[in-house]
Each structure stands twice: as C-alpha cells, then as structure tokens.
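Hi there,

I know you've been waiting on this one. I reran it after we fixed the sequence typo, so this is the corrected version. Both the input and the resulting structure follow.
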Amino acid sequence: MSPSKFHQVGMMITLSCLYACAGADFGGGSKKASDSPAKQSNPAQPAPGNSAALPEKGQDGGSSTDASSAGAAPAPGQAANNGIGNVIKTIGQIVSSKPAPTTPPATVPPNTKTCGQSLLVSAKANPYLAGMPDGTSLTYTLKPEEPQTPTDKAPDESPVLASPLDPSCIAAGATIAFDVVGGVAYSQAERGYTANGDLGMIRPHQLGASLGKSDITAPMSSLVAVFLSDSDPSKAQAPATLDFSTQASRDYQTLSPALGQVFFVGNGRTSGGGSHGVVVPPGATRIYFGVMDWYQWNNNQGALHVTVLLAKP
C-alpha cells in the first residue's frame, strides 16, 4: 500500500471513531519489566559513566491532565470535545514524527579512515560461533532459577562478520581501530552497559577455549572480536587465553592477537581517551565481533554499533 493510501485509510478509520473514542480512557501505565533472573549471583553496580540506557521494546502511552481541568466538572459537551481534540493532536504527532536514524555517525579520529559501513552487533552475538556453519551449537550449564535455554546456535547467536571490508584493513600488519556506541545487557534482568561492559563482573568463557577460539577473561557485556583465516577454525589449535581483568590490560594502545585469539575491544578507546590499535595477524582474512558473556548468550538484550577504522601510516 502506498504511503498516501495508507494515510487516507488511517484518517478514514480515525475520523469514523472520533465520537466513539472521545470518552474513552487513553491512559495507561508502563509495563512491568521482565522478572527473569540475572545470571550472576552477586549483581554489581557499574562503574561511573559505564551504564547505558537500553531502548524499550514497547511503552504504553500515558494520559496527562491539564491543571485547569483537574478536579473541575466539565461543561456539557466539553468532555467529548476534549477527547476529540486529544485524538486529533495524537494523530498529528504520529503523522509529523520521523523515525530516528538507526545508525549513529562514526567518530573518526585523526589519521584514520573508515573501512566499511557501521556494523550492528547484537548482545546475543557469541564470539565462539565465529566462522561456524549454521546448526553449530554450544550448550552451557545453567542454574535452576535461570531461563532454561542452555544452547546457543548458529546463526541465531552467531557473531557479526565485518563485511564488506576495505581489503587494506585486513592486510597482515595493518593497524585498525574502532568506534563503538550503544548499550547491551547480559540478561533480561540486567541494566544496560556500554561497550566497556560491567567492570564489576569480569568472567572467562564457561567452556574455555572452544571451536578453535581461545578463552578470554573480560568484563561481561563488553565488545570483543576475533580474527580468522578462510579455513575452518574448529580444526585449528586454540591459542593462549588473553586476560583483560585489569584496567591496565584494557588500556592497551597496541595489541597483536593471533588468529582465533579472542580479544577485548570495548568502546575502542583507553580510559585516557586514546584509541586502541590492533595489528592484523598474518593469514587473517576476516574479523568477527561479538559480546562477552559467561554463558547463554541467547537471553541477552541490546546492540552495539561498530565502525572499523584503519590507522594511516
């Protein structure tokens, strides 16, 4: 249906119900948040400046009462007229409103260039499924009180492949940087965190090294990444674990991960505001982005926008 026909039909339906709806109560309260339990046994408060608001999936509208009309009996016909006016006002707001852009513009530091389009990385993106075919799965051990969905599988929980990507950005020895915004949470009961993650909840992968990817110790909900070659990663020996449990380790200026070695990206910057520089390893042909969790990515929520940048010589 064309937009003009859509608006015509919408207006016909709305006008036909103006008098029927005028006396209706358009108010409503906010829906209660999910009571699903969090994965951690001791929830921690995020570090100052490290929390991020997650977009609501839906919100009921609330009616407001003008101060001049509160507690006063309306004149005959006033209630219907006010109801019609409110409905027409609401229609005008809906028709005139424009959707916000889904991808915020990247902040490009000096001496860098963008390598491709911004990527949307879901909080459900499990880095250990990088490079694996559909149907591949990882099953975790859960607590009895947690949502009993222990299995993450490709493609539902697959991480995000940076593609298309400027070939110069994946050349061995090139140094890449990142611009990251957004907020994610590692369960339906948790608040949102920035790409630096929950600094009070730092964990390794429950299954350790898996499918040719190394273990990692990093803040929950932080952005992580892994380089792969064109080969099946599950056939390779997993490299050593990288530990990002301290602020000093997360404040790296230059990092040289191996193929299959999962590493911390965070918001792409050090605590001092400088950019992380990551050196592309020999043999790398692709890079995947995921979110750090301990286990069970499938009940996470939120997303991060990631832009890969190439540091100019």
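Quick highlight: The chain has four helices and 15 strands.

Best,
R. S.
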